[in-house]
């Protein structure tokens, strides 16, 4: 991940990007004896490879157009004026191909389905993946190559950035809705992560790059706190993850409860003391300024309410009410688990000091400006709007889930809708019956072709070659070899006949020579 952040070359970034994916695959499948963990690891690896294919093609196209993959190179880099001007109209398509990689890595619709299943890994791995590494890489990539996305922008709008906005909006909303119908404490947080990543994408798409990166940093703190807190809850409840079998833990696990509550309020966007509130307010302000449409702004306002609602639901089911199931014998986690929770809770609150409008140090630093203290900027209209939305979400949560039980109130009143959301809007099943069904059909077709067509073709050519070999063997043995053998036998017989005329006695040879010489002399005399 450090390589992704520090790389000045898109090629080096891509190499580190793939190593992050490999590490995530190995961590998700850590429990190698669990078939579900192995399946989740393969699912994450394969789905992110789909996005990475687009990333790779975009990288090749960028190199073909600009002749370099260096971001900055003394005025000749791909993100500098000379490199950007060489792209022309292809910049939009290159940006969208690079965005495919971000969609896969940061769990954006429609490639988000791997991320909830990544909960099969150990809880610290979940905190690592969903807070600081893999899912953050896609957001960082879009921010890193933002000059490419914004090339030729009119009022801050380009086709590629518009796609980023609407993908982020859809991701944020559907994930928040799905989180409302989950019973696994970690899956709720996983869908929450997907939703928050969608919010960051919206911020990047509308031009709020600084706000998006600020929320990414803040999200790293409070989401790590929530995942480790969920691990503490699971440990205290004897490895139970179903929130229906918890309840009343605030008295049995006070440290976990207090730290988890801080993370919940930061995620929900409770103003003043929690970092998530300031970053969300900046994002909502950025969406309000988008000239194309106000729809993302109002949809993100609904997302803020939904976030507070599903987190309130989780808090009530886990920490309030009467103990149920494993919670009856729950205990506080040891200091080795609660100490990191305390540290992260302090960081969540302390980080808000860097994000407050009264002293916007981080915001101004990322924007390349100088920060100054102005207490009058602390109270802004957006603060009251955010407070009202959070209060609305928490109030709805308390009203709906004030009596937690085995059945969710939504499940009782709207069973079809609850089942639809509980199964992730049937997206996994949709992919199984479309994309995977096509893949299975293609695999069966390939298997049939391999077994009967290609293998038959090979066997046919093999039989033809075997027949030809048998023919040539017979011709060689019965014709060529026989003729050669007969000629050799005749030569041998002739040699035997001649050899019998050679006695080996010199007198005989001299007599034959004398007779021959005499015959020649007589012939010569007769002729003359």
Description:
The protein is mostly helical. 74% of the residues lie in helices and 0% in strands. The protein contains 24 helices and no strands. Helix 7 (123-131) packs antiparallel against helix 12 (209-236).
Labels describing this entry:
mainly alpha; 24 helices; 528 residues
The low-confidence parts are: none
Taking all Cα atoms into account, the compactness measure Rg is 39 Å
Beta-strand content: under 5%
| Secondary-structure element order, N to C | HHHHHHHHHHHHHHHHHHHHHHHH
Report on the biggest sheet: none
Shape: elongated
Q: What is the secondary structure topology, with strand pairs?
A:
Elements: H1 2-6, H2 10-28, H3 35-66, H4 81-85, H5 90-105, H6 114-117, H7 123-131, H8 134-144, H9 146-149, H10 159-179, H11 185-205, H12 209-236, H13 249-252, H14 254-268, H15 275-288, H16 295-319, H17 335-355, H18 361-367, H19 381-400, H20 409-413, H21 415-422, H22 427-433, H23 435-500, H24 506-527
Helix pairs in contact: 2-3, 3-5, 5-8, 5-10, 7-12, 8-11, 8-12, 10-11, 10-16, 11-12, 11-15, 11-16, 12-14, 12-15, 12-17, 14-16, 14-17, 15-16, 15-17, 16-19, 22-23
């Amino acid at each position: 991940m450090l390589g992704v952040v520090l790389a000045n070359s898109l090629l080096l970034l891509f190499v580190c990007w793939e190593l992050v994916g490999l590490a995530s695959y190995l961590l998700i499948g850590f429990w190698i004896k669990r078939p579900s963990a192995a399946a989740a690891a393969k699912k994450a690896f394969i789905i992110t490879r789909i996005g990475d294919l687009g990333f790779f093609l975009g990288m090749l196209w960028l190199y073909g157009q600009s002749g370099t993959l260096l971001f900055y190179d003394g005025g000749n880099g791909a993100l500098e004026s000379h490199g950007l001007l060489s792209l022309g109209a292809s910049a939009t398509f290159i940006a969208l191909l690079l965005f495919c990689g971000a969609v896969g890595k940061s769990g954006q619709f429609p490639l988000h389905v791997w991320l909830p299943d990544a909960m099969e890994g150990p809880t610290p791995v979940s905190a690592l993946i969903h807070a600081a590494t893999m899912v953050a890489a896609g957001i960082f990539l879009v921010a890193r190559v933002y000059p490419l996305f914004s090339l030729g922008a009119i009022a801050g709008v380009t086709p590629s950035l518009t796609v980023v906005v609407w993908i982020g909006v859809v991701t944020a909303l559907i994930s928040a809705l799905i989180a409302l119908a989950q019973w696994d404490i970690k899956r709720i947080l996983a869908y929450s992560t997907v939703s928050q990543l969608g919010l960051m994408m919206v911020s990047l798409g509308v031009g709020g790059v600084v706000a998006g990166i600020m929320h990414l940093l803040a999200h790293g703190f409070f989401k790590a706190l929530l995942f480790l807190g969920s691990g503490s809850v699971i440990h205290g409840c004897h490895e139970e993850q179903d929130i229906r079998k918890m309840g009343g833990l605030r008295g049995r696990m006070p440290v976990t409860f207090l730290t988890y509550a801080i993370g919940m309020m930061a995620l929900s966007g409770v103003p003043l003391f929690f970092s998530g509130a300031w970053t969300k307010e900046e994002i909502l302000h950025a969406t309000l300024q988008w000239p194309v449409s106000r729809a993302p702004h109002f949809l993100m306002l609904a997302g803020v309410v939904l976030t507070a609602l599903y987190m309130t639901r989780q808090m009530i089911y886990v920490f309030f009410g009467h103990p149920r199931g494993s919670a009856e014998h729950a205990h506080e986690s040891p200091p080795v688990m609660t100490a990191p929770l305390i540290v992260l809770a302090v960081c969540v609150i302390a980080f808000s000091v860097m994000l407050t409008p009264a002293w916007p140090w981080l915001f101004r630093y990322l924007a390349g400006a100088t920060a100054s203290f102005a207490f009058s900027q602390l109270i802004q209209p957006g603060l009251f709007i955010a407070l009202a939305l959070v209060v609305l979400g928490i109030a709805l949560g308390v009203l709906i889930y004030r009596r937690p039980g085995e059945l969710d109130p939504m499940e009782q009143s709207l069973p079809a809708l609850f089942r639809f959301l509980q199964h992730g809007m049937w997206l996994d099943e949709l992919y199984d019956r479309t994309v995977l069904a096509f893949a299975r059909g293609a695999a069966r077709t390939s298997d049939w072709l391999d077994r009967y067509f290609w293998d038959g073709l090979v066997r046919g050519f093999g039989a033809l070659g075997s027949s030809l070999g048998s023919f040539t063997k017979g011709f060689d043995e019965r014709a060529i070899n026989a003729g050669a053998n007969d000629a050799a036998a005749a030569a041998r017989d002739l040699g035997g006949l001649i050899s019998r005329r050679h006695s080996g006695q010199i007198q005989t040879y001299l007599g034959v020579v004398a007779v021959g010489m005499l015959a020649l002399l007589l012939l010569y005399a007769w002729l003359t």
